[in-house]
Amino acid sequence: MNDNNDLLVMRNITKRFPGVVALSNVTFQLQQGEIHGIVGENGAGKSTLIKVLTGAESLESGEIFLSGKGIAPKSPHHAQLLGISTVYQEVNLCPHLSVAENIFIGRQPMKNGRIDWKEINKRSEEALARLNIKVDVTSTLDEYSVAIQQMVAISRALDTSARVLILDEPTSSLDKHEASNLFAVMRKLKSEGIGIVFITHFLDQIYKVTDRVTILRNGECVGTFDTSSLPRGQLVAKMIGRELQDFQSWVDAKKAKSETDTDNSVAKTFYCGKQLGRKGTIDPIDISIAKGEVMGLAGLLGSGRTETARLIFGVDKADSGKSYIEDKEVTINSPQDSIRLGMGFCPENRKSESIIADLTVRENIILGLQAKKGLRHSIPRRVQEDIANRFIDLLNISTPGCEQLVRNLSGGNQQKVVIARWLATEPALLILDEPTRGIDVGAKAEIQTIIVNLAKEGMAVLFISSELEEMVRCCERVAVYRDKRTIGELGKGEISEQGIMHTISGGHGEFAIGANEL
Amino acid sequence: MKPVLKRGITSHQVFWPLIGLALLLLFNFIFTKDFFLLEMKEGHLYGSLIDILNRASVLMLLTIGMTLVIASGGIDISVGSIMAIASSTIAVLLSGKMVDINGAQQFVSNIPLGTALLLTLGFALLLGLWNGLLVSYFGLQAIVATLILLVAGRGIAQLITSGNVITVYHERFFYIGGGFLFGFPVSIFIVGAVFLLTMLFIKKTPFGLFLETVGINRVAGRFSGLNVPLITLICYSISGLCAGMAGILMTSEVRSADPNTMGYFIELDAILAFAIAGNSMAGGKFSLGASMVGALIIQTIRTTIYSRGVAPEIMLVVNAIIVIIICSLQSERVKTAIGKVQFKQGRA
Hints:
Strand content of chain B: 5-15%
Oligomer: heterodimer
Shape of chain A: globular
Largest interface: A-B, 32 and 25 residues
Radius of gyration of chain A: 24 Å
Low-confidence stretches of chain A: 261-265, 508-518
Helix content of chain B: 55-70%
CATH architecture of the largest domain in chain B: Orthogonal Bundle
Strand order of the largest sheet of chain B: 1-2
Number of domains of chain B: 2
Largest sheet of chain A: 6 strands, mixed
Helix content of chain A: 25-40%
C-alpha cells in the first residue's frame, strides 16, 4: 500500500507494561474513506493500540503519522484536536443533561460571555441529522435508547475537524436493527472521506461493514487483509492462532452428552418457580430447571430474561408466586438466601455488578464462598490460595498469579474469575446472564465449554444470551421471552436460531441468519 | 512456581505517611531543643515524643472508627458530638458525695466506676448503631445521617449535664487519661489495644475482605451474597464505640465534662488523619496502620508549632501548609513527577 494514500499510519508500535509486552512492533494503516476492522482475542492488544493512538497511553517506540505528518498525541483531548476521535464501548455521556448539552459539553459556543443555546441546539440538530437521527435535542439523554445515546456519542466525537473515527465495541449493547442503523451511518461517514477504525467481537459485523481487517494476537500484528477475500474460518484461526478442531472437539463432546442424556431421561428437577412475577418487571411465569440441564432464556434485551434471573436469585423480590427447590417450598428474599440454597449468579454487567476491580484474583474468587460461610468461619490464607490456584488452572485464567488485581485482567479473564467465584461455592444451580458478552471468540468458546461440562457433571445451568448461536450450541431447552413474559418453550430438537427468532417474532417474521461456520 | 509480584517498599501505603512523619521529626531534631529527650521522673517517662503519643490517643481512637466507616463508602461526622455525649454521661454517672470512711473524707460515686464505664460505652455504641441504621437500613446518605447526630448530639450532651460544665472528682477514673503503666501513659495502652483488636478483626476474620468489597463495589458485594447493610452497620457501631472511648479518655484527662467544647470539630481531624494517610475518601482499600500514622502526623504538627512558638494567628495557616505538603507527597501525579525527575537525573 502506498503511504501517500494513507490517512493514518502507525508504524512499529511497541508498548510494554510491567511484565507484559502489550504491543510488539505493530504496524497499522488506515486509508481515507475506509472502514477498517481490528479483531483479536482479549489481551491481543486492541485496546492498547487504541489507547496509544489516542494518547491515553504513552508511546514507547514507533511512529504515528496522520496525513503524512508525524504526530504524538499526548491525551485523548489532544488527539481529538488533531482529528482523531473515539467513541468508547461504554457510552461516556451525562444521562441527565440534554442531548445538545452532551454534544457540546466542554466546547460550548459563547455569545456575549454566555452560552449560546440557540446555536447549540441548532448545531446539535445538524450534527445528528448528519447521522440520520432526528430527536428533540433539548430532552435529557436518558430518555433515549442506548442506540440513540451511541449516536449522540458519535456526533459528539465527529467534530468538524475529525478525520479518524475510532469505534470501540459500539455494538455490544445494540440489537440487530440498531446495529444495522449504525452501519448505515458508518457507511455514510465513510463516503464523506472519514477513516473509521471499528473494533468488535462480532465477526458477522466485520463481514457486514468493514473493507479491511487487521488481526492482532498476543500484541503482535498477524496481518491486514481485505475482508471480502478472507474466509471466516481463516479469520478465526488467525485470531486464536490455532485451528478449529479445538472447537469441533467440544461440539462433539456436547453431542455425546445429549446422547447419554436420552439414556437417562428421568432428569430430576432442581429448581421450580410457579407463577413467579413482579409487577411492572415481569408477568408471572412458570419455570423449572433440572439437574444436569442447560436451560436457556432467549429474547430481546428487556424482554424479561434478566428480570427472571434476578427474581430466581432474589436480587429483586418476587411479589407473586412460589419457589421450590427439590420439591420443597423455599423463601428467597435476597442473594444470601439463594446462595445458601445452592445457587450462583453471574450478572450481566461485569463491571458494575460482579467484579471487585481493586481486589486480587484470589479475593474475588473466594468472596462468594466466604460470604456463604459467614463472618465467623474464616477461610485460612493457604486454603484461599489453593482454591484460587485450582480455578486459575481449571478455567485457564490468564494472570501472573492469584495476587494480581482483577482490574488488570482482560474482560474474558475477569468473567472467568466471576465464574470461579461461583464454582467455589459448589452451586447446584448456576445462573449465567450474558457470560460471554464483550469477550473474544477464544474465551467465548472456553466459557461455552465450561458451561456444557458443568451440566455434564450434574449442575443445573440457567443460561441467558443475546447471541442465538451460542444458545443453540449450549442449551437443551430454551424459554423464549417477549414483552416481559414467556411466549414459548423449545425442547430438544426444536432449538435453532431460526426457531428461536420465529418464536420471538410470534411466528410471522422472516429472518436472514448469516452463515454459521463456527 | 508461584510468580512473585514484586513490590517495592514505596508501594506500601504506609510508606509515604511515614516519610511525612519522619520529615516532621527530623525538623524537630534539628530545630527544637530537647525534642527527643526522654526523662524518667518518679518512674514515669516524660518528653515531647511521649507527649505526642499521649495527646494523639484521642484522635487515634476516633480515626480507627473513621477509617472503617470511610472504607465502607460512608463518613461519620458525628464522632465529636458522640464524644461530648459520652463525656457528659460519664461525668454525670460518676457524680457522688464525700463520705467519711474510717475517719477520712473520701469521694464515693453514685454508681461504681466499672458500671459507669460500661453504661457510657453502651450508650456510645447505641449512637453508632443509630447512625448505621439510618445509613444502611433507611438508606440515608452518610453525611446527612451523621449530620443529624452532629447537631443533635451536642444538644443531648447539654441536656445530660443540664447545660453545665461538670467537674469530675473520682480519683480512680483519672488513671485512664492521666495514669502511667510501665512508665508509659495508660492512654497509649488503650489505643494500642483497640488498634490491635481492630486489626485482628480485619485481618483474622473475613471482615476486612467484606468491608473492602462493600467500599469498592457494593452492588457486586450484594450479588455475591454479602449482607451489605450489616457490614455497614458494624462500621458505624465501631465508630460510635471508638468515639465513646475517646470521650471517656478526654474527660479523664481534663477532669471535667464541657458539652460545648468537648470534641468540637474533632471529626474533621479524624477525617484528615484518614486522608493524610493516603487512604481514598471514596472508600474501598484502606490501611489502618497508615491512618494511625496520619493521626500522629497531625498531633506532631500541632506539638511542633506550639514548641516553635509560632504566633497563634498564623498557626492554622502553617498547619494547613504542612498538610498540603504531606498530602501532595501522596498524590499519584506528584509521585510520578518525582519519579520522572529521579529517572532523568539517573540518566544524566
